[in-house]
């Protein structure tokens, strides 16, 4: 069994811009709580978390995704200027950067969800396109955390997403390691990977 998820891949220059934009925030935020930042190489836009998946199911997922993504075009996006949080500002567990795509990511997520539901995976309840920036483990000053989050300005960077991937998430003591099992070019060919 492999712990898997489906995601859109973020261009490297966008990841670098995000890291640069939140540099001061990353230094300051650990004074108000225990916050674990996502490694730059692990930044992505999750379309669907699948959970533990057997090898035979991975092949079926790959077949579904190959068909789906080959019929999709690249996605034009823009980062939101402010950070968001889950589940809410009074109880922050996840800090994220929103992405605007004229609903293209939301539509793709719904299609992925329908295809994966046919394979027996549970249906998603709701979806906000985002890049997870950090997970908050504990907070000793909620007001200061909210103030720091509101103070971050993200450049309204425009970019294009060309690839999606099926990933395996291997949980390690120092954070997850993501292994690409298969990569899909939107509107193009498939790059099959060993995983």
If you had to describe this structure to a student in words, what would you say it looks like?
The chain is an alpha+beta fold and 195 residues long. The chain has a single domain, classed as Cyclic Phosphodiesterase, Chain: A (Alpha-Beta Complex), CATH 3.90.1140. It is built from five helices and ten strands; from the N terminus they run βααββαββαβαββββ. The protein has helices spanning 12-21, 23-29, 55-70, 104-118, 142-151; strands at 2-9, 33-37, 44-53, 75-88, 91-100, 130-139, 158-161, 163-170, 177-185, 190-192. A five-stranded antiparallel β-sheet has the order 3-1-8-9-10, with helices on one face. A five-stranded antiparallel β-sheet has the order 2-6-5-4-7. The longest helix is centred in the first third of the chain and has 16 residues, at 55-70. It is globular and about 45 Å long. The model has no long low-confidence stretch (mean pLDDT 92).
Examine the coordinates and then state which fold CATH places here, giving the name of the CATH topology: Cyclic Phosphodiesterase, Chain: A
> What is the global morphology?
globular
Class per helix and strand makeup: alpha+beta
| Total number of distinct structural domains | 1
* Secondary structure: helix percent: 25-40%
CATH superfamily: Cyclic phosphodiesterase
SSE series: EHHEEHEEHEHEEEE
* Major β-sheet annotation: 5 strands, antiparallel
The CATH architecture can be named as Alpha-Beta Complex
CATH structural class? Alpha Beta
Count of individual helical segments: 5
What is the averaged pLDDT score? Answer: 92
Strand order of the largest sheet: 3-1-8-9-10
Unreliable stretches (pLDDT < 50, length at least 5) are: none
C-alpha end-to-end distance: 12 Å
Radius of gyration: 17 Å
Percent of residues in β-strands: 35-45%
Assembly type: single chain
Count the beta strands. 10
